[in-house]
Write a structure and sequence with these properties.
The complex is a heterodimer of chains A (314) and B (372).
Chain A lengths: L1 H29 L6 H16 L9 H24 L6 H23 L4 E2 L3 H8 L5 E4 L2 E4 H23 L1 H11 L1 H6 L4 H26 L4 E2 L5 H14 L4 H29 L9 H15 L14
Helix pairs in contact in A: 1-6, 1-9, 1-10, 1-11, 2-3, 2-4, 2-9, 2-10, 3-9, 6-7, 6-9, 7-9, 10-11, 10-12, 11-12
Chain B lengths: L1 H17 L2 H15 L7 H26 L8 H18 L3 H25 L2 H21 L1 H4 L17 H27 L2 H11 L1 H6 L4 H24 L15 H14 L5 H21 L4 H19 L3 H22 L1 H10 L5 H10 L1
Classes of the chains: A mainly alpha (314), B mainly alpha (372).
């Protein structure tokens, strides 16, 4: 039981970290609450599916399909940023409504192109191992899991570290930090705020796309469908609000808290309650508990665990 | 005695309604809606309009909370769902008739809105929006989990109907009038609240919370008041909707669906946020376009419809900054007012207008040109 919770918890947390960090970084730099983050996740998995399975006649190998997917999602998101988000960036309600509409646009375009059915997303690790005659399944400390899941979890942490290095060590990363601290002053310092925001948007979108490819190809029956975006979006919300909007460290720690809560509930608490009362098959309290945890944390720390504190304006 | 009183009532009514073109227009539209079923509409349209009435109450309540108080709520379906499940569960477990369950669920709704408003007081802006989104998810999770109590995703069917004593043929029309009456009462109340002293305080909180605090306004009380009033009317919409034949007389988790929270935003932005009458206009236009014109007349697939709305909403926000259809009409009517004033007071005012470089509407400009 304990081993199950620890192993599965670590894997889930790693995946959630990749999902949440893009959302949080985008908020940190541009103050955009991107409700289309889940839709970009879905779009990434669909573009990967399109090239990896040869759906439209073009077949690439899996790794280049992944790269193409991340690049295309980045380009699409930056185009949409320029057209629809940039003019309204000052007003939070407008930003939310626009990103929400973008999410519905992506969802319905996918319904039109691919139909509303489920599509099987091929897993990179599984294909790699199959080509060498090995199985994807692995047992660690008596816990059954797959190499695909471990790969996606580890890769997400690697990308996470890469993002931190990018922000801390490069000039553009420094400009992003400046922009997140003060928009007007960084404008005065000669930073091209528009282009930098667009870059942040495309970076965050490509993170969402990579998360989409890895999470859909290793969990939940390896499928993607147009309405898949809601669950990852809400998980990203819970994590990011818990850790503090705009804080990358907060996103990592929030992902671990949420990932472990989810696994503790699905593996330990739900079976326990199911023994006491009649509970339908497959129902779980974890979603409700995750949201309730987020609320409880906000009651005591209104800006999340690592959120920016603005002293004068409160 | 009675006649003087009546005459005074009439003159007050005339001064507050007849002399103000937007209100006159609203009254005329309302009367039009009241006479619509009499000309023998097919029952499908009556069903659509009944649904639109309920949604209009819901959208107007969202507008009071968000457009006036500035408390961004992305999970307003929570109140709709509380209303639906409040009346549904009271009927299912206790067997009360609907004239007990609906008022009780309204009480539950106000209590819940205060409970929800409490954690929301601590957070602002983006955090608030994301926090409010969490509530319907929590409630959906609980409803699906405690299936023995709530019947889970199956829903509570066969809720009591409003007019069991009427013949089947006229029940839907009667329900249409009931919802229209409720919409009228709710819309007038919400409009009055939004334009009362309290409403002005709401707007001051929206504009600058710190400054209103400094002016001695108890921001906490007013925010809670906003939540309670908005929650009351949203719960009303939910609980009334549960018993409608148009809705199938069922309380299910469809009443908590995320798309309901999202669509209410689209309606409001389309109609004009912060106006109270805007969302009502938005609901009517979009619901009739969506459920009748595009579905039954043109039979457009739902994907294209949703795509179209999303593009429309983005275009509305970018091009008109979310001013909305209703505001556009009232602005034009105010131009008309201005033009009438110019007629009465002579061309001098028109000249000062011109000198100040003020923009005058199409009608005023045409009239001025005619005078030359």
């Amino acid at each position: 039981m304990i081993e199950d919770i620890i192993i599965y918890g670590l894997i889930t947390s790693g995946m959630y970290a990749l999902l949440a960090v893009g959302f949080s970084a985008l908020y940190g730099v541009t103050e955009i609450t991107n409700l289309a983050h889940g839709a970009l996740f879905m779009l990434g998995s669909y573009i990967y599916f399109f090239f990896a399975s040869g759906y439209g006649g073009i077949k690439l190998d899996l790794i280049s399909a992944l790269l193409v997917s991340a690049a295309l999602v980045a380009i699409i998101s930056s185009i949409f940023y320029r057209i629809s988000l940039d003019p309204v960036i000052e007003d939070p309600i407008s930003v939310m409504v626009v990103t929400l509409s973008l999410a519905i646009i992506f969802q319905e375009s996918m319904v039109l192109f691919f139909g509303s059915g489920r599509k099987v997303v091929p897993s990179i690790a599984e294909n790699f191992l199959k080509a060498r005659g090995m199985s994807d399944f692995v047992t660690i400390f008596g816990v059954k899991t797959t190499y695909s899941q471990i790969l996606s979890s580890v890769l997400s942490l690697v990308l996470f570290a890469g993002l931190i290095i990018f922000i801390e060590k490069t000039r553009i990363g420094g400009a992003m930090k400046a922009l997140s601290q003060d928009r007007e002053v960084s404008m005065l310092m000669g930073i091209n705020v528009k282009n930098l925001s667009m870059l942040a948007m495309s970076l965050s979108a490509s993170f969402a796309a990579v998360a989409g490819v890895f999470i859909t190809s290793s969990t939940g029956g390896n499928v993607t469908y147009p309405h898949i975006w809601q669950h990852p979006l809400f998980m990203a919300f819970a994590i990011v609000v818990l850790g503090g909007l705009g804080s990358i460290k907060g996103a990592l720690i929030g992902a671990f808290i949420i990932g472990f809560i989810e696994k503790i509930f699905t593996l330990a608490v739900d079976p326990f309650i199911a023994n006491l009362i009649n509970v339908p098959q497959g129902a779980t309290l974890s979603g409700a508990v995750i949201m309730a945890t987020m609320l409880a944390v906000l009651l005591f720390r209104p800006k999340g665990l690592f959120g920016k504190r603005v002293e004068l304006e409160e | 005695m009675v006649t003087t009183y009546l005459r005074r009532l009439y003159s007050s009514f005339a001064a507050h309604v007849f002399d103000i073109p937007p209100r006159m227009l609203a009254l005329m539209l309302f009367l039009l809606l009241a006479f619509l079923p009499l000309i023998g509409l097919p029952s499908t349209i009556v069903t659509i309009l009944t649904g639109a009435n309920v949604l209009a109450i819901f959208a107007a309540s969202w507008d009071l909370l968000v457009g006036r108080t500035g408390q961004i709520s992305l999970g307003h379906a929570i109140f709709f769902g509380i209303g639906t499940y409040g009346t549904g569960l009271l009927f299912y477990h206790l067997g009360h008739p609907l004239w007990i369950t609906i008022p009780l669920s309204l009480l539950i709704g106000v209590g819940a809105s205060l409970l929800i408003g409490f954690p929301c007081l601590r957070v602002k802006g983006h955090y608030l929006a994301l926090v409010t989104l969490a509530f319907p998810i929590i409630l959906i999770g609980l409803i699906l989990y405690f299936r023995a109590f709530t019947l889970g995703d199956f829903g509570i069917w066969n809720l009591p109907t409003y007019f069991p004593f009427l013949p089947y043929a006229v029940r839907e029309t009667a329900e249409y009038y009931l919802t229209l009456f409720l919409l009228f009462v709710s819309a007038v109340t919400l409009y009055k609240v939004a334009n009362s002293k309290t409403g002005i305080v709401f707007v001051s909180i929206l504009d600058d919370e710190l400054a209103s605090k400094a002016s001695g306004i108890n921001v906490t009380t007013y925010k809670m008041m906003g939540f309670a009033i908005s929650g009351f009317f949203a719960t009303l919409a939910g609980s009334v909707n549960a018993h409608l034949i148009a809705n199938g007389r069922v309380a299910s988790i469809a009443s908590l669906r995320i798309s309901l929270s999202f669509f209410v935003i689209i309606y409001t932005i389309f109609g004009g946020i912060g106006t109270i009458y805007g969302p009502i206009v938005g609901v009517y236009i979009l619901e009739i376009l969506d459920k009748y014109v595009f579905t039954q007349v043109l039979s457009v697939p739902s994907s294209y419809r949703l795509l179209g709305y999303s593009v429309l909403v983005i275009a509305f926000i970018i091009l008109w900054r979310g001013r909305g259809v209703a505001r556009f009409v009232t602005d034009k009517l105010e131009d008309f007012e201005e033009a009438r004033d110019i007629d009465e007071r002579g061309p001098r005012i028109w000249k000062t207008y011109k000198k100040e470089g003020k923009k005058i509407g199409v009608i005023a400009r045409m009239r001025a040109r005619l005078k030359k």
